[in-house]
Specification:
382 residues; alpha/beta; Rossmann fold; 2 domains; six-stranded parallel beta sheet; 12 helices
């Protein structure tokens, strides 16, 4: 049987890591290919134990098997979000290999000027490069000069049954406006806090921030004088948190696609977000949510070593071009949009129904698996 080796890090919290386990478990049941995971790190305790997982950093036997599969014509190396990595560069340039599929899920935005050359070399050695959105595909073509024929779009996939959760009863007195993400520079949490500051006169609103990250202390200090902002830290049940909200805000500076938007769609939670990168591929302004154009100069800088950096470029979905003139949405405009939408029951109902329909049709795990198998077939046949 032909084999797929998934080269992925499951030691972190992110969109790739959260969506991979359901896909992996279900695709093994299909039985079309044999699937295994080879990684250099252990699985984070928040994820389920996955069958046929091998750590190549702690076992010589696992490393030998990994290199054997890399050389086999009956095996595809499917590597996630490491196209620009030094280890991937060493792997592809020191060892013979046959079939490699590199999957870009958003890490390209974090590539520095110094890493661009390595990214291009790695990508050009792959049989196929998958992009998780049209924005990501355009970013790869325009920033790294990849050939359009080599880059294919594979939208993320989710298992609808995972979203069958009990939605808490909403309060008529207090309405919850939420933000959930890693607390890193590009996620724009500082804008969310400033919008909350401008809405302190709304005693019926509370602003909840779920997540952890390198900016946690800085953001808490920013909100120190605000009674309407609550920091929840890393929540154990993110979907329940999203479902509990009256409104989700995604004020990102960059967002290759935005899994949280898709999750909000399945949870039927209305959304206000930035019109940047791949976000409009999920949210249509005025139809399934509210999108705000980034127009202000950045009010935040790369603060600490080890944090996710501000990208060198972002993709403008209106012009279909990448730009180095990075902007953020306006906090005052965001506060006004929150105040308007939170009280507009008719608009919220329209938005959640349209968004739910869109995510069910375009972001199901069944569709993702079907499309991915077609790409596997293509790589094997070439």
């Amino acid at each position: 049987m032909k084999k797929i080796i998934h080269h992925i890090s499951l030691s972190e919290i992110g969109g790739v890591q959260q969506s991979f386990p359901p896909f992996y478990i279900n695709t093994r049941k299909e039985g079309k290919y044999s699937h295994s995971i080879y990684s250099t790190v252990e699985i984070d305790k928040q994820y389920p134990s996955l069958p046929d997982f091998h750590n190549i950093s702690t076992s010589v036997i696992n490393k030998i098997r990994f290199l054997y599969y890399l050389h086999s014509k009956k095996c595809i190396l499917h590597s996630y979000n490491v196209i620009g990595g030094k280890n991937m560069f060493n792997l592809l340039n020191r060892f013979p290999f046959n079939k490699v599929l590199l999957h870009e899920r958003g890490n390209a935005w974090n590539i520095s000027k110094e890493e661009v050359k390595r990214y291009i070399i790695n990508a050009n050695k792959a049989d196929l490069v998958l992009a998780n959105s049209v924005a990501t595909k355009q970013y790869l073509i325009q920033r790294f000069g990849l050939e359009e024929r080599k880059v294919k779009v594979l939208l993320n996939g989710f298992l609808p049954s995972n979203f069958q959760i009990d939605r808490p009863k909403k309060s008529d007195k207090i309405k919850k406006v939420g933000f959930i993400a890693r607390l890193e520079t590009p996620k724009g949490c500082h804008i969310f806090i400033e919008a909350a500051r401008m809405l302190q006169n709304r005693s019926d609103l509370v602003f909840e921030i779920a997540g952890d990250g390198t900016l946690y202390s800085d953001l808490k200090e920013q909100a120190l004088d605000l009674d309407n902002v609550l920091f929840l830290g890393r929540v154990s049940a993110p979907l329940k948190f999203i479902a509990s909200l009256d409104l989700l805000v995604v004020p990102s500076i960059r967002e290759p696609l935005g899994n949280v938007l898709i999750e909000a769609g399945f949870c039927k939670t209305p959304v206000i977000a930035s019109r940047v990168d791949g976000i409009p591929e999920v949210i249509t302004n005025g139809e399934s949510g509210v999108l705000l154009n980034p127009k202000n100069k950045l009010t935040i800088k790369n603060i600490s070593i080890g944090s996710v950096p501000i990208p060198e470029c972002t993709y403008n979905p209106i012009t279909n071009l990448i730009t180095r003139d990075i902007k953020e949405i306006d906090a005052l405009e965001l506060s006004q949009s929150i105040s308007d939408l939170i009280d507009d029951e008719e608009a919220k109902k329209k938005f959640v129904n349209n968004l739910y329909k869109h995510v069910v049709e375009n972001f199901s795990l069944e569709r993702y698996s079907k499309d991915l198998n077609k790409f596997y077939e293509k790589v094997f046949s070439d």
